[in-house]
Amino acid sequence: MKAVSFEFHRPASLAEASDVLVRYEGDARVLAGGQSLMPMLNLRLVRPAAIVDLSALAELKAMEVSSTEVSIGALVTHSALEFCQESGVTFDILRYVAGGIAYRGVRNRGTIGGSLAHADPAADWPSCLLALDAKVTISGPDGARQLSIADFILGNFTVALQPGEILTSVHIPLLSAKARWGYYKHTRKVGEFAEAIGCVIDDEARSVYRVVAGAMSTPAVLLSLLAKDTQAVTLDSIRHALGAAAPSVEGRHLHFHAAAVMRALQTGARQ
Amino acid sequence: MIQISLTINGEPLSASVDPRMSLVDFLREKLSLTGTHVGCEHGVCGACTIHIDGVSARSCIALAAACDGRDIRTIEGFDCDERMSAIRAEFSAEHALQCGYCTPGMLMTAYDVTTRFEKLDEAGIRREMSGNLCRCTGYQGIVRAVQNVFAAEAKE
Fold this sequence. Notes:
By secondary structure, chain A is of the alpha+beta class. Chain A folds into three domains: 7-53, Uridine Diphospho-n-acetylenolpyruvylglucosamine Reductase, domain 2 (2-Layer Sandwich); 58-173, Uridine Diphospho-n-acetylenolpyruvylglucosamine Reductase, domain 3, CATH 3.30.465; 180-269, Enolase-like, domain 1 (2-Layer Sandwich), CATH 3.30.390.50. Chain A is built from ten helices and 14 strands. Chain A has a five-stranded antiparallel β-sheet. In chain A, helix 9 (235-245) packs across helix 10. The chains are: A alpha+beta (271), B alpha+beta (156). Chain A binds chain B through residues 1-8, 10, 31, 34-35, 38-39, 41-43, 51, 53, 55, 79, 102-106, 108-109, 189-191, and chain B through 2, 18-20, 22, 25, 41-44, 46, 49, 52, 55-58, 60-63, 65-66, 68, 109, 112-113, 126-128, 130-131.
């Protein structure tokens, strides 16, 4: 199918982008890489009055590494992260996760900010960035603000962006050199959206141990009840922690997602 | 209508496009570059794969209006390309196509894969080509064709 008719704007500055979004009172959609938005437009799942293309905003394409964190511009592509030359454990997991997203042609266009703002529960970045305890910077008519991933993603396909606000960057605290990680996603075919995701970050030097289950009927959750002693973890204890964190996940789904978490532990943090 | 200036197969071009027009429709309907095929129109099948600024992309999920200033290369832009000629020859030799609908996209992806990697095993080729669907061949011939291209380049 073809998309509905809409107006097209390519603002030259963030302020102008916010102005345009405010003017359409929530009826305009932001275009980053378009790898989710364009299919939705073509399928007429979204019928916006306007598209606001951010591609002219060079400041959203930068990546900066400090001694404590990496800031990734919202328009940095999955491909750029997959082939990023930075060294360190943080970039190992980013490279791994980015390289597993969809297909080459999609990774060349799709962006980390677009994926987060779209908040598809089956996408890779929401789960991975929750495990990495990332924050997002949002810019809007009233200035900029920061939110944690948990506060940013309110539900499936629903985020905390207010009218006129745009996600501009993602901030990830750097893992220490001995940190371990595991990422497992279940798909039936290479490149498909995940049916279950498990992600584990074990960074003892920074007292960080975060286990995330994602690609569920709800947004990704942190399994805070799971014991730190990874050798003692069983499928039962994961099921228990998952059931507490995401009560709506039940029955065989609970088992399926617990298995994905277990495989994430087995592939990485449970060596 | 939106005014865009872009490069198509090396030629600079200016055009006025409807905001909702996808890049593949622009190529086929406005420029008569019908070598690029339209399949699923939602980024799944890979038939419309082209190169934007030198890297593969799906032209059904790119807006023509958003391609101002971009360098676009379609299958027609590879007529005299040595590597693409070799890939085409291997596709013929290995019966890597039957109806041919997916072939332009397959060739564009095979070009990207053989350019990007020095060598790939069969599993690697299948993984890299997984974004392009073929409903005729069962992929065996396609994988062999790409394997042959790698093998020929290794000999040189």
